[in-house]
Automatic annotation (TrEMBL):
UniProt keyword Transmembrane helix present: yes
Region described as Disordered: 227-264
Lineage: Bacteria, Bacillati, Actinomycetota, Actinomycetes, Mycobacteriales
Keywords, comma-separated and alphabetical: Membrane, Transmembrane, Transmembrane helix
Annotated signal sequence range: none
Keyword check for Nucleotide-binding: no
Name of the protein in question: Thioredoxin-like fold domain-containing protein
Transmembrane segments: 15-35
Gene3D superfamilies: Glutaredoxin
Domain Thioredoxin-like fold stretches: 75-234
Segments of skewed composition (Basic and acidic residues): 227-239
Superkingdom of origin organism: Bacteria
């Protein structure tokens, strides 16, 4: 029997086509991974419509109404953007807090800490620094929208988004371009991380070994974060009680388990 003799270049040609196909597959795969990694910001973000102001002083985000009542209580909230219980508290109190701020019934100081940075994943510092940078622009609507998004979608935003995604979000919120650039080039970390650490040190001075988040003080007095009596799986909205009456009890057995500084 006779065999068909193949041209000597056939094997080389087949090999080259195989290489081309492999390169195309790799390019498609890399493109998919890049797209998939950035798709988290494929959401429409817009600044909140609020009637209060925002400022940063000594690393503390201050929320105030221009028409705040003289006897309005001041709430100091210690929170960590990676803390699940902090996200639970934001879910419980954000709507009433916004309303009370708009009405001038309360002053709020947000002390952002970075207790839960761990294993090289500085999610608490990263998101906290970005939030502080947005707050320092004085755009209360942009800050409040970012704060709500970061805690409301904590697993996606606060824990997974990197600086490019966070910069994209800030840009959507109308934040000044120089601030967006400082987020994208990560320089916000050097600028604001020391503030987060200082806030954590301040909470340790207040609570000692019990230091953890969320922690709430009303006019300097510790207020226990309680479980919602109607749904113990959630935290109670503390704002109506504070506006309508006196608050304050010893920082002992909180009904909500806090995420401790020992988790660093």
């Amino acid at each position: 029997m006779s065999q068909k003799i193949k041209a000597p270049n056939d094997k080389n040609r087949n090999f080259l086509w195989g290489i081309v196909a492999l390169v195309v597959i790799c390019v498609v795969f890399i493109g998919f991974m890049v797209f998939n990694g950035r798709k988290s910001t494929d959401v429409e973000l817009s600044a909140a419509d609020v009637s209060f102001s925002v400022a940063v002083e000594d690393g503390v985000v201050q929320l105030r109404s221009d028409d705040v009542a003289d006897d309005a209580p001041t709430a100091d909230v210690y929170e960590d953007y990676s803390c699940t219980h902090c996200a639970d508290l934001v879910e419980a109190d954000s709507e009433s807090m916004e309303g009370a701020l708009d009405a001038g019934e309360i002053n709020v100081n947000l002390h952002t800490v970075n207790f839960l940075d761990s294993n090289g994943n500085e999610s608490s510092s990263r998101t906290g620094a970005v939030a502080m940078a947005i707050a320092e622009t004085g755009d209360a609507g942009a800050f409040w929208a970012f704060h709500e998004k970061a805690f409301g979608d904590q697993a996606e935003v606060a824990r997974d988004w990197r600086f490019d995604e966070l910069a994209d979000a800030a840009e959507q919120l109308g934040v000044d371009s120089d601030v967006v650039d400082s987020i994208r080039d990560e320089s916000v970390m050097d600028q604001y991380k020391p503030n987060l650490q200082a806030n954590g040190d301040r909470l340790r001075e207040l609570m000692g070994d019990q230091a953890g988040t969320p922690a709430l003080y009303i006019d300097g007095e510790y207020l226990t974060v309680e479980r919602d009596p109607e749904d113990p799986s959630k935290l109670k909205d503390w704002v109506p009680d504070v506006i309508g009456g006196e608050a304050g009890d010893a920082p002992q057995e909180s009904a909500a388990e806090t995420e401790s500084s020992d988790s660093e």
